[in-house]
Write a structure and sequence with these properties.
This protein is an alpha/beta fold. The chain is 38% helix and 19% strand. The strands form six sheets. The chain has a seven-stranded mixed beta sheet with strand order 5-4-1-6-10-7-11, with helices on both faces. Strands 13-12-14-16-17-20 form a six-stranded parallel beta sheet, with helices on both faces. It has a two-stranded antiparallel sheet with strand order 2-3. β12, α9 and β13 form a beta-alpha-beta unit. α5 crosses α6, α9 crosses α15 and α12 packs parallel to α13. The longest helix is centred in the last third of the chain and has 29 residues. The protein is elongated, with a radius of gyration of 27 Å. Its EC number is 2.7.7.60. Pfam families: adh_short, IspD.
Length: 503
Amino acid sequence: MTQDHTTGPDATPETPAPWRPSRTVAVVLAGGTGTRLGLGIPKQLLKIAGKPIIEHTLAVFEAAAEIDEIIVLMATGHVADAQQIVDKAGFRKVSKVIEGGDTRNATTRIALDAVGEGDVNILFHDAVRPLVSARIVRECVNALWTYSAVDVAIPSADTIIQVDENECITDIPVRATLRRGQTPQAFRSGTIREAYRRAEGDPNFAATDDCGVVLRYLPGTPIKVIDGSDENIKVTHPVDVHLADKLFQLAAAQAPRLTDHRSYTEELAGRTIVIFGGSYGIGHDLAQLARRYGAQVFPFSRSSTGTHVERAEDVEAALKTAFEATGRIDHVVVTAGILEKGSLTDMDQETMDRVLQVNFVGPVIAARQSLPYLQQTKGQLLLYTSSSYTRGRAQYALYSATKAALVNLTQALADEWAEFGVRVNCINPERTATPMRTKAFGEEPEHTLLAAETVAQSSLDVLISDLTGQVIDVRRAPGEPAPVPAQPTAADQDRLASGVDAG
């Protein structure tokens, strides 16, 4: 068990004997039924960013060095569902998945029995707070060296009013002293057990908050408050689902980056990457970068190999070529796209069909054809959207619409393919210096554009990560050198003239 024994200057030990817990246990409370979400399943089983909410939550505690053991208290009738998630994710710290009680205080008592006797640190956390940070977990555990009860809270941005039974204001507390409570709540085991023991003698006892039990029945016990975070939301209402999904996207804005050439080589050597749209631009730079680290890369495009991503037979042949050459396909990347500017009503049918076929039907075909190969390697499909997916823009409505469709496709396939162990992600680069963009928009100030090499590097980081169901934003870092767009070959000039981008 790794813990920081550092205490603050105002720390006052409550007992002469130093606290020496045998272990630290995270108790994940997953007893909710999802009634307020209007779901047929408990809300903790709802998928966000490609995984069930409870899986995101458990992953935080699994990764925390301060946590030795995890116990899950699940809603009645869904213990097997939770156990399946634990087994599939390979969470080694989860020792028990058991049924919770009918009330919060009954659930806490079951948890205390499951933890057992002895001196133990216990953290109670809502399963539907999947965005709890490692920092919060660490500070809660560290605080238990000095305090026997710890809460997590954030300042209230709103004025809090108190009302009577007629919904009339009776008081407006000073906001500076108010906090909004979150979880985890952390306790020395003896403290929380004693609080509940005393509560048993109260016929009116009904707990909704474990720190509240300590406050009421052990009034002399200081309860330390740790700073929470605005992101540590509780998924309770329908809007929370959308907020949590967006927060996961923000959290994934930067995929984990390895530290050196050797680390990338260890991850990529021997892997097979198929890139549809690899003759120039992002696809070309990604192919070069991956090869540098030992990957076997097969770029396909209309100009270089005669491969049309919107034709199922072409995609099938390309995948077969890569598989027969290497015996595996680890990653499939689709960067091909068309950007045609102009009013929708002025577009001819041929242009509309081409935009829809290449930008959307092509990735759909690539996804369908790729799955059998990616299942074998537990690999990843990587798609590309545009910043215009969040809001359709005049003069390239179809382009924006198809890019929004790819985001939905990414999220849906991440859910569908999770059972196969196949990951699906989507890169969302800001305006990038590629020949296609230059053809469509002309010369632009260099400092406003992202380098294709930067997007390629981020793409590679996503491919070797565990992310799934994510839309990863790639933004130009302050001070980044101005990009120099790669010049297309003579063969690519014809494709540019028709607006087709190889990458």
